[in-house]
Known about the structure:
Blueprint: H1 2-26, E1 30-34, E2 38-40, E3 45-51, E4 56-59, E5 66-81, E6 84-97, E7 101-105, E8 109-112, E9 115-118, E10 122-127, H2 139-146, E11 147-153, E12 164-173, E13 177-185, E14 192-197, E15 205-209, E16 212-226, E17 230-234, E18 238-250, E19 256-266, E20 270-274, E21 290-299, E22 303-305, E23 310-320, E24 336-338, E25 342-350, E26 353-366, E27 370-374, E28 378-383, E29 388-393, E30 397-403, H3 450-478, H4 480-501, H5 506-524, H6 534-543, H7 548-563, H8 571-591
Parallel strand pairs: 2-10, 21-28, 22-30
Antiparallel strand pairs: 1-3, 3-6, 4-8, 5-6, 7-10, 8-9, 11-12, 12-16, 13-18, 14-16, 15-16, 17-20, 18-19, 21-23, 23-26, 24-26, 25-26, 27-30, 28-29
Amino acid sequence: MKFSKHILILVFALATTFGIAQNEVSEVKFETKVSKKKLGVNERLRIDFEMNKDGDNFNPPSFENFTIVGGPSQSISNQWINGVRSFSKTYSYFLAPKQRGNFTIAQATIEIDGQTFKTLPVDITVTAAVEKPKDPNDPDYIVQQNIHLVAEVSKTNPYLNEAITVVYKLYVSQNTGVTNWRELDVPGNNDFWSQNIDIKGVKIENGTYNGEDYRFVVLRKTVLYPQKTGKLEIEPYALDITVDVPTNRRDIFGGRLMQSVHRTVATGSRTINVKPLPETGRPLDFAGAVGEFDFKVTTSKNTLKATEALEANVEVSGNGNLKLFKLPKLSLPSALEVYEPEHQESISVNLNGMSGKSSDSYTIVPSYQGKYPIPSISFSYFDLKTERYKTITSNEIVINVDEGPINTSNTVVNSNTPKQQIITSGDQFASFKTQTNFTSIQQPTFFKTKLFWTLLLTPFLAIPIAILIRQKQEARQSDVVGNRIRKGNKLAKKYLKEAQKALGNKEQFYNALERALHNYLKAKLNIVTSEFSKEKIQELLRNKSAEEATISQFLELLKNCEMARYSPFSNVEMKQDYDKASNVISMIDRQIK
């Protein structure tokens, strides 16, 4: 009986084991799972190839209508629950659709226990772009929605050499924090003459962006003068910014903790269309000046002697591209010695462009008597307001040389006279100081002079004087009471001075006056603030032999300082109280012992 029972148990165990084995083989699963079967062309698709038994030689489909943006990644799960084993192995891919349409993801294959298993095909529909939900705590989303770096261009269709301004602003929404920023890429702008305008300190201002309230700071201001016509690109400006974003953690009070992350923002490139200057009406002497200018030619003198020098100044002033054109040249008679001009500029650059003046200064030396005309010259520029060319012509200037050698060939010279060799007297620079009087630098013997003995004995006399001064300083520093009195007097004078400045402003005046009186008494009577009551002041002043009238005036001043908080006081009353304070401090100094 017992033997048959053991046989039944053995048979049952073998049958169970065989059944489990058969069950495991028969239940192999290999399938495709997708995150969605319909998605927009701007969305991402996750696809998982999952099996319940480990295998080899996994072969994914081609994904010909998709771009693999992530994967493959592999994950394995192996668990025992209530004695039952659970196994799972997954290959995952992240796909981006290439276009709209209906597509089929083909079969994947794998070998398990020597057999090849295949997944079923999956149909996917790709629609037009959809509005994707965003995580409001995602740093990229926060930067995209709340932080904007903008390049504001003053004009997108300027003329050649016309000034335009680019102002770079960083806009930040009211509920977003930017703690720091750093320039990553500064625009080169090779097709422009450019100059940055210094910004003294970053100022936070309130403004609007796309109709919403924002804070903004101006990070950079640049003035550009286009040097080519056609479409020119203003290069992007990029920043690395530090942004505070919320995390999933909270503090002990339930508030959400913040985390600092780095993100990059940029303006993007801007394109402007530069117009050429018109050909119609262009003067022959036009040298590229664009703006609004004045022009003049002046001389330092009109009458002089031969061999003296004068200066002729050609100056253009106004607003425009002052650094980007050359000044017209003077045309002078051949009988005048002319030296290369000295160029000078006094030009500032602001948001309106360049302004100031540019000049050439000529040094001229006549060699002979006569009348020498400096003929008129012209300066042409393109006026942006009228969009027309304008020409300014200088007046003719005649230089009278009334003393010196006579040039017998011609006494009145004009600018059309051909150049010829001039025989000079050799003193054409007589107006310049070329001679010097030399004096001997030999000095008398220094040894045993009065200065020698003075310098020798002075250090020995200075030593006892320095000792006396040091002793007095030490005695003064050790005098604690005296130092406190001096400090009190100094503070009283200081506060009285503040009170004097505040005359007319009741609150400031009486606050300063009250501080002056308090600090003076604290140092003079050697009391602390806790002892500062009217009764204590009266008692101490009496003990120090102060007169009753002086004590009464002092207490009355303190009362006025208190009453000033609640009652109106005129300027006349404030002036009277100031004079009383000065007098009562002086009387207390004389009376107390």
